[in-house]
Design goal:
Blueprint: E1 13-14, E2 26-28, E3 37-42, E4 51-54, H1 55-67
Antiparallel strand pairs: 1-2, 2-3, 3-4
């Protein structure tokens, strides 16, 4: 049994904290958060690798981005 979520129908959202006019965007698939994991990818390479992080790790990353001077 695989623990990797099926991302074939994931709906991706670009981070509002991505800079450079969208050229350096991070995307995430929020529908997976209730399962305890958050898929994250580079919007410039949507067919590339996806990082799966825990919801706690994602919350920490978002908090860090909010505190950063972007």
């Amino acid at each position: 049994m695989s623990t990797t979520p099926d991302l074939s129908h994931a709906i991706w959202h670009k981070s509002s904290y991505s800079g450079n006019g969208g050229a350096t965007c991070v995307e995430w698939a929020p529908a997976f958060a209730p399962s305890g994991s958050v898929p994250v990818r580079d919007s410039k390479n949507p067919g590339g690798p996806t990082l799966i992080v825990s919801t706690a790790a994602w919350s920490g990353l978002v908090a860090l981005a909010r505190g950063a001077d972007l």
